[in-house]
Design goal:
Number of helices: 17
Strand content: under 5%
Shape: globular
Number of strands: 0
Order of helices and strands: HHHHHHHHHHHHHHHHH
Helix content: over 70%
Largest sheet: none
Number of domains: 2
């Protein structure tokens, strides 16, 4: 019997590794489709509709991202709670040698974890609330856009509709996250990524058709974006329906305690996301105020390369987040440990190779990109790439901590590091006279402290403690059953 159990475990392990490889591959394909569609669309707009249309589309896409905060961190919160709710159905069957009936221990508390369907229903109700808030924010931003920004005269009449359509498309994408969480926790990650990639490809194709064959203008691009996000929303909703049978909330299952759990987890994630403002955006302000307004143009290309390289490891981390949440709910801490070690090593290696390639080809890249080798940017690029690799190496650790529900320690760590970045960068520039290098060194210092020292220690400690508690709990139950 032990041989058959061992064989089954090996087969399940091989299947799990195969599934993980497929999920990671699909994530990279989806990321490539996302980047590729944007490159194609902006190229079409720039070449066919002009520089002004390109500038306005870029401005709208960049600023409309504030709507992501109206979701209140629902997606990661829902993945975490769905994984816990689904854990009972993933428990292995009782061994044939165990007693056929086990005594119920009166002192054990009843399991109050809501069902998978109930969590999804509460998530849909949560989406309806945040979606309403997002819609109001979109309408306010739409009517205020012309007052907030300078708009070329020939585009003035089109901007209201452009902002509204892009805002609605963004809200549909956010709303689809509730269904995406269902797919990710039910091991349908590759399907979810396929749906996302398909929507990106559709946006590029129908935008090309609208501009080249139907003489569309900038509004046509926005309509195409909205249509692609509607396709994504419909696809994810239909796929999630096969798992829970829900298109709308079942209001009998909606409970405040569940909403409160989603809100508590999600708000901490939002605060962690806000810490991003203490890095590049604040660095731009420090450069503008303390060094030279023109120096922002030296720093910005390096930061944009940094953001692009981080996408290489983000795809890996995005896959391991729901997988670690499911493994944590099932008590498979050895699996989580493997996710962390292998994922961190793989992500760091990918970033190191990518950063080295960019550094070696930086002169060519800048010449093709900007028509100028940007020697001053090249002078600081190597330092920027150092904190890219160090910071990116913690992406998998972030996914592990969120998957295990350790959102508060993670949020505190990024807020403290962000504040330290501002203070150190200021001191290096003002008191150290290091200029742009001082800005970069401030970031390197805090990123190294958090990502090289604190993150590995805390992740390994968290996994070890959870594993020990799980083993002790299992041992206690076994002794009670055999007593």
């Amino acid at each position: 019997m032990s041989d058959s159990v061992s064989t089954s475990a090996q087969r399940d392990g091989g299947s799990s590794r195969s599934s993980t490889a497929a999920d990671i591959t699909s994530a990279y394909c989806a990321t490539a489709a996302h980047i590729g569609s944007w490159i194609i669309v902006v190229a079409i707009v720039f070449r066919m509709l002009g520089k002004e249309a390109y500038a306005m589309l870029t401005l709208v896409q960049a600023t409309i991202g504030f709507l992501n905060y109206t979701a209140l961190g629902l997606a990661p919160a829902l993945v975490h709670l769905l994984a816990r709710a689904d854990a009972p159905r993933r428990q292995p069957p009782v061994d044939a040698l165990s007693p056929p009936t086990a005594p119920v221990l009166d002192y054990e508390p009843a399991d109050t974890t809501p069902s998978f369907r109930a969590v999804h229903s509460n998530g849909l109700a949560f989406v309806m609330f945040t979606g309403t808030v997002g819609l109001i924010a979109t309408l306010i931003y739409t009517v205020s856009f012309d007052d907030l920004f300078r708009v070329p005269g020939e585009l003035l009449s089109r901007m209201t509709m452009l902002v509204l359509l892009v805002g609605l498309g963004t809200l549909l994408h956010i709303a689809s996250d509730a269904s995406a969480a269902v797919l990710q926790t039910r091991r349908r990650i590759a399907l979810d990524n396929t749906l996302w990639a398909s929507s990106e490809v559709v946006w590029a194709i129908i935008t090309f058709a609208a501009i080249f064959f139907f003489d569309g203008h900038l509004i046509a691009v926005a309509y195409c974006y909205l249509a692609s996000r509607l396709l994504l929303f419909a696809g994810r909703t239909a796929a999630a329906y096969t798992q829970t049978g829900l298109l709308l909330p079942d209001w009998q299952l909606v409970r405040w305690p569940v909403i409160r759990q989603l809100l508590g987890f999600g708000l901490l994630v939002v605060f962690a996301q806000l810490a991003d403002l203490l890095y590049a955006p604040t660095d731009y302000i420090l450069i503008n105020k303390l060094i030279d307004p023109v120096a922002v143009a030296i720093y910005a290309p390096a930061v944009q390369i940094d953001a692009g390289l981080l996408l290489l490891v983000a795809s890996l981390a995005n896959v391991l987040f729901p997988k670690s949440a499911v493994a944590h709910a099932a008590g498979r801490y050895g699996t989580i440990r493997r996710y962390y070690l292998v994922g961190t090593l793989a992500g760091t290696a990918i970033l190191a190779v990518g950063a080295t390639g960019v550094w070696l080809l930086s002169g060519v890249i800048f010449r093709v990109w900007f028509g100028d080798p940007l020697p001053q940017t090249q002078a600081i690029l190597s330092l920027v790439l150092v904190h890219t690799v160090i910071g990116g190496s913690s992406a998998v650790g972030r996914s592990i901590l969120l998957g295990m529900g350790k959102v508060l320690p993670f949020t505190v760590s990024v807020l403290v590091a962000g504040a330290a970045n501002v203070i150190l960068s200021y001191c290096f520039v003002v008191y150290g006279g290091l200029g742009l290098r001082g800005i970069v060194l401030g970031t390197i210092t805090v990123v190294a402290a958090r990502c090289l020292l604190w993150m590995p220690w805390y992740v390994v400690r968290t996994i070890r403690r959870a594993d020990c508690r799980g083993s002790a709990s299992a041992g206690g139950r076994g002794q009670s059953l055999t007593a």
